[in-house]
Amino acid sequence: MRRALDRLANETFDLLIIGGGVTGACVARDASLRGLKVALIEKNDFAGATSAHNSKLVHGGLRYLRNFEFGLVRESLKERRIWQRIAPHLVHPLPFLVPIYGGGLRARATLRAGLTLYDLLSFDKGWLDDPAQRLPNHSWLNRNEALAAEPVMDRPGLEGALQYYDAQMYSPERLALECLIEADENGAAIANYVSGGKLLKRDERVEGCEARDDETGQVFDVRARATLIAAGPWADIFLEQTLGRSSAHKLMRSKGIHLLVPAITRKAALTIAAEGSHFFILPWHGHTLVGTTDTAFKNSPDDLGVSEKDISDFLAFINQNLPAAKLMRESVEYFYAGLRPLVDDGSGDTYGASRRAELVDHGKDDGLDGLFSAIGGKWTTSRDLAQSVVDAIVEKLAVSVADCETDEEPTAGGDIGRVADFLSAQRKEHTDLPTIEHLAHMYGARLPEMLAQADNRPELRQPIGGAGDIAAQIVFAVREEMALRLSDVVMRRTCMGQIGAPSKDALDSASRIMARELGWSEERRSREISELAPWFLTREAA
Ligand SMILES: Cc1cc2nc3c(=O)[nH]c(=O)nc-3n(C[C@H](O)[C@H](O)[C@H](O)COP(=O)(O)OP(=O)(O)OC[C@H]3O[C@@H](n4cnc5c(N)ncnc54)[C@H](O)[C@@H]3O)c2cc1C
């Protein structure tokens, strides 16, 4: 996959997508698989915003049952199974425990009723070829069983725990990237570090947008018969800036932070109910990810950050509701914030707001024919949202295309058969690579292609950073996965920066490999290293 700047500037596309988060990536995958001529531009790196900074769950959304959002839960559960099937290396089952403290039979019965409904709505959760991907129904663990499973739930009043299953992503960044790789293989013209600007309008028809390449400063027009704004939390702001007037469709932005701490559970995730909200304790790459908060965010999405107060408030809340965790500021190895782009229902209540997605046809609503926005939604339902978006665009363009195949077609690395067999074959073949399982999850069927970078350079099979990555991934990221900056490699193409700041040595080695591939000067190499520092620093709220 290479930056397709010439094509973007010189061809006319059926569809231009502005934004390379999971929404844009899924639309690009779907539209290109159906035979449309697709362009996608992303102002930073792919999946570098909301699509990276979330709870990494592919889930039905148990709590939405409380709002009677049965349709959304069913859709999410259906999509959960589809992701498990099309990307089995990156999406795996995760057991959850919900501890019950002192609520008595009534609390237990209410939750059980919800979980029974959740089981019923996911009636197809066993319809997967790989038995290891099939999710069981919920069950009850008495106090002793619950504590034996996860001692951190210990607290006076513990009666037991309900166990249910959802799924977790190994790397949301790579899953979104795989969708883009597939789109690229199907002819899409894609580039990161290209921002969309003024819309190109003829009469009241939108015919693409002005674009600026951040690498060179070059400005050019991208022409398309239909344009989709898939800019996540920037969507309404982008639209208003380019229209110069307000649009009927507004977003509420809700900030959610996550903290990475040393592992506090053995195997299961925990869902902890707390004062009208909840948080998750999630096993993640040998650590625990705790998330998330939910607070209205009024500033520009570009100013998002995590403050020391965010961390101390959240730690206090966690310790109050899960005292055995005994988390301290020193326990926090890494943190991040994401912004939920929620459809504004006028309530101002971000926790209660629906996570449903909305497709806006600005031809109908703002008199701008050929312009669409995809807003709101969840990672889990992004494939389904993309299908509706492409259906609407195909109808608008009045073209005949192939049927949608994204629910059957494996993602770029997804064609691996049964996960356990795939992992075992890789372990046998690569006995010199102690972290081969990690690599197998990261690349799936593309693993041989990545490892081939080290064919005549055995030094590239050496580990880099502390998260199981090897040097060959960096070469592969630059040559085949459009990594342009050190942050692309450290934060998204590999897991080097995902469990806390990598060591100086690791950054030095990674940047030297990139410098050799991209011809960086020594000055550029040091700048790339210093530009990574803010990822690991707190900042006070703007
Ligand atoms: C705290 C939190 C926890 C969550 N947990 C989960 C979860 O566990 N499971 C789940 O299913 N969902 C979860 N979500 C929701 C999910 O992450 C989002 O629905 C999803 O990532 C949205 O993707 P997107 O592509 O629409 O937005 P984004 O990922 O934000 O992508 C939009 C992209 O547009 C780009 N862009 C903006 N302006 C321009 C421009 N002018 N030109 C070019 N590009 C531009 C941005 O740089 C960005 O990369 C969570 C969200 C948050 C915030």
Describe the structure.
Helix 14 (472-480) packs across helix 16. The protein is 34% helix and 23% strand. A hairpin with a 2-residue loop joins strand 8 (194-202) and strand 9. The protein is α+β, with helices and mostly antiparallel strands and 542 residues long. The mean pLDDT is 93. The strands form two sheets. Strands 3, 4, 5, 6, 11, 12, 13, 14, 15 and 16 form a ten-stranded mixed beta sheet that branches. Strands 1, 2, 7, 8, 9, 10, 17 and 18 form an eight-stranded mixed beta sheet that branches. Flavin-adenine dinucleotide (FAD) binds at residues 18-24, 41-44, 48-51, 54-57, 59, 195-196, 230-234, 238, 256, 292, 338-341, 377-380.
Q: What does the main sheet amount to?
A: 10 strands, mixed
Number of strands: 18
How would you describe the shape? globular
How much helix, percentage-wise, in residues? 25-40%
Q: What is the residue-mean pLDDT, rounded to a whole number?
A: 93
Bound molecules: flavin-adenine dinucleotide
Q: What portion of the residues fall into strands of 2 or more residues?
A: 15-25%
Q: What structural class do helix, strand and pairing data support?
A: alpha+beta
Low-confidence stretches: none
Number of helices: 17
The span between the termini is 37 Å
The whole-angstrom Rg is: 23 Å
What features would you highlight for this structure?
binds flavin-adenine dinucleotide; eight-stranded mixed sheet; globular; 17 helices; ten-stranded mixed sheet; 542 residues
Please provide a brief summary of the model.
The protein has helices spanning 5-10, 22-33, 70-86, 104-121, 143-149, 172-185, 235-243, 308-321, 362-365, 382-397, 419-429, 436-443, 447-451, 472-480, 486-493, 504-518, 522-532; strands at 12-18, 38-41, 57-58, 91-101, 139-142, 158-169, 189-191, 194-202, 205-213, 219-229, 251-262, 269-274, 277-284, 287-291, 295-296, 334-343, 357-361, 371-376.
